[in-house]
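quick one
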Amino acid sequence: MAVDLLLGLQWGDEGKGKIVDVLTSNYDIIARFQGGPNAGHTLVFNGKKHVLHTIPSGIFHEDTINLVGNGVVIDPVIFKGELDKLAEQNVDYKKSLVISRKAHIILPTHRLLDAASEASKGKAKIGSTLKGIGPTYMDKTGRNGIRVGDLELSDWQERYRSLADKHESMIEFYDAKIEYNLEELEAEFFKAVEVLKTLTFIDSEEYVYQAQKSGKTILAEGAQGSLLDIDFGTYPFVTSSNTTAAGSCTGLGVAPNQIGEVFGIFKAYTTRVGSGPFPTELFDEDGETMSRVGNEFGATTGRARRCGWLDLVALKYACQVNGVTQLMMMKGDVLSGFKTLKVCTAYKYKGDVIKHFPYNIDPENIEPIYTEVEGWAEDLTEMSDASQMPKALNDYIEFLEKELEIPITIVSVGPDRKQTIFRDK
Ligand code: IMP
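structure w/ inosinic acid:
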């Protein structure tokens, strides 16, 4: 069976967790392939909210295997925190969670390095979640990292020590005045590593290959969004992994010809957290309304998200890079009450009108060109069937489908599993 992908198409926080949860009953395995605890995937069901950071969003379904792939970076301390919360919910995670031996470990000093690097950048800071993601991927590509499989070796603590010592001298080099107590951080870390070691470690590429061969269905769950991709995002204001479709091949060991459906998730408007260019950003009442009604605060850091109109130039680019086959529009309910909606359909770029996403989208180069469409007044949050959707919402969706040339098959109208409208292809 081919592996299906589910990816965020904007700057993250599109609502991937909810849709994975909705789709999980169609799959035997849900697999994360990149990122780490910088992600915050929110699921709401039975009146309760659950936030996952590293653990795949299929974990609440009893019969689903949840796989943390080789492309993911794991902070044992945060991971343990997630496990503790699952235990409180009586989730039998030991049965349903497997971890790639090739996934890399985030050390306490990676987090400190992240903080030191950001502090030293001053105004040019990335706005990182400070979870140690960048430094851990740097050690991975620098061939210094410690992997999950290493924890099974007798000398792993010596390797840990020499890497942590090196990190400490690097922290000093930044001269960023980071206060920390490494002994305390290490005590917590080593305790969490012991918990991690009670889980099942696997050679995940072989596991995925055999699962595919035996007809198991697999959904690869992306984290962050395409515009945060290390290659195709708004560099340097990006994360440190490939968040796009190709990342699932390297992050799970799936061959490119084994990819099936590519589900692209986007919000009916746009948000971004952290620094970096955002052509359709709003600084007015409309932006404030989106922020308030959409409760636009980060699930991991609690930071306020910047809000703006939907950017079809950027969305088209993300669809192209990922080969999206089906779109899912999130938070349609947040736009209820806007008389007119604006959609960016082109950029004025250094005097020319362009329809593609260029190398540099800094504000001095880009001016968004908008098409205005009629809004809707109706509350969508109680709707569960496409026939209930107001005409203006249907028109908005059809306009987007025409521009993007891809069907929108799910419209989400609230955070709960039940607030999901399926549309025919
Ligand atoms: P890092 O991946 O924590 O280093 O953060 C790099 C950039 O990506 C920052 O602008 C973060 O705010 C952003 N970012 C990282 N993870 C997420 C996410 O899951 N959702 C939204 N933004 C994210």
